[in-house]
Here is the input.
Amino acid sequence: MLFKEKVTYFFILLCIFTNLYYLLDETEIKNIDELSDTNSNYLYCLHFAIITQTTVGYGHMYPNSERGRMLVNIHCLLTAYIFLA
Here is the structure.
């Protein structure tokens, strides 16, 4: 896979999962950050998707339910596939 294709797939995956996280209830993703009182903010969902996709995983935001954990697992596996392909 060419670098240009990898970057394209990376951003497509980022957009898809940002929107999926945004559609989840605010109880799905636990946010420890004291600055935010809700997790349904689109910027927090984008931040969570970027941190998950780049495998940094700071730990201040994490999935709180089985459905959220499964979605994050799929996100991580697809990202690993893009990086390793």
Notes: DSSP finds three helices and two strands in the chain. The mean pLDDT is 80. The first helix runs from residue 3 to 23.
